[in-house]
Structures are given as C-alpha cells and as structure tokens.
Amino acid sequence: MEIICYRAPEIGAEPRALPAATYNIAHTLLARSPSGAFFVPIRSMQYLAIIDAAEFVFLDGNTKCWIDIAWRNFRPQERSSLDDPVPYEAVYYRAHAADLMPRLQAELPRALAELAAKERFSGDATVLKFPAPQRPSGA
Length: 139
Known about the structure:
Blueprint: E1 12-18, H1 20-32, E2 37-42, E3 47-52, E4 55-60, E5 67-72, E6 86-92, H2 97-118
Antiparallel strand pairs: 1-6, 2-3, 3-4, 4-5, 5-6
Helix pairs in contact: 1-2
C-alpha cells in the first residue's frame, strides 16, 4: 500500500518525551517490516499513524493525506537505560494539533499493542545446542 502525504507549513514545535515502552514496541514492529515503514490505525480517534525510522506522522481520517502532527528527531542515545523515555520533537501542522497530543500519546500505545498481538510468525523454530564448557585441566 502506498500513501502520499502532504505537509502544510509548520505552525509550531515543542520538545517531548515518548515512554520507553511505546518507542520500543514501535521499533520492534519497524524491524519486522520489510518495507521500512508500517501503518497503525488508531481507530478510537479515526487517525492513522505512519511509522518509519525517521519519524511518526499522524493523519486525520477526514483530511486523509495531510499530516497533522509529526514526531521526529528521536534521540534514544540520550537515555541512560532502555526504560527511560525517549526525547523527540513534536511538529504541528494544524491549529488544533497540540490539543491532540495527550490523546495520541495515550492511544498510540494501545494501537501498537493491538497490531503486535495480530502479528503472526511462521516458520520452524530451531533450538541450538551448544556443548557444555570444558573445565581447564588442573582446575
């Protein structure tokens, strides 16, 4: 599936932090995507999130191809542990976009969890058996 998205001029931007669990599940799903991007329907808001390595963009179901908000410039390297939030920049392209942020940050993790639960993995699992380590002689 291919979607062409457009951006209006930026209205504003602000620093934010994404909870580690949300960032981690998004990047786990991204790693499994053969195209390097994936779509996340946020049904409760009638929004679509498009996630790739550079940013998360959010499209309203009514305006379809116009980006309302982009989350970009993720800096996971600034975390001291994998459980720490990931700093990023939220960029707004619509006047009401800043008002949507609390709800998007609540609904996106739910939508990602639903998507992850639907993923099916096929193929055989293989258990590799390694020989037990040998003790050095004289020990």
